[in-house]
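Risk register update: the risk of archive-format incompatibility is retired. Evidence:
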Amino acid sequence: MKFLEKVFTIMALVGVMMKLLSISGSVAIIALALVCLAVIYLVFGFLLFNDIRLRDSYKLVSYRDITFTKVFMSLLSSFVLFTSIAGILFRLMYWNGDVMVLIAAFGLNFLFNVIIAIIISIRSSHFYKNILIRSAILLIIIACLTLTPAKYLDIEKRKVLTEETRLLRNSQ
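Archived output:
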């Protein structure tokens, strides 16, 4: 699971770099990587955060040391990270409602980070630190995407607008 998480994260970063360089196929790579990453967090988040391998998920021994708090927090963090990835995906793909989804994801992720930080200050746990690292990274990305105007994100649209402006000036 952690391997797939790293692969899809790197794939999404490569897709964003391709988009910035205006290389075709970047949208498909970004969409595929972020959708797969969101599904991993939503479906397999419980296993990922509790360090349970997929092949060990059917063994009762794997769940022996997991408390109700860990179950609840891993399911909650799965939903929060899924929502964060969905917000990033909406913003990068320029789908309708992208700002609304991104702001909702920012608020949810910010509140979740505060709760996890309080829990870590009370009792230090490797489980909560892993969740905080993932959600804090996504919070920073969401904050940057929220504050960045859309005209700076869409390089291809900006090139078209620049070309149209140049043509209009030349025709006058």
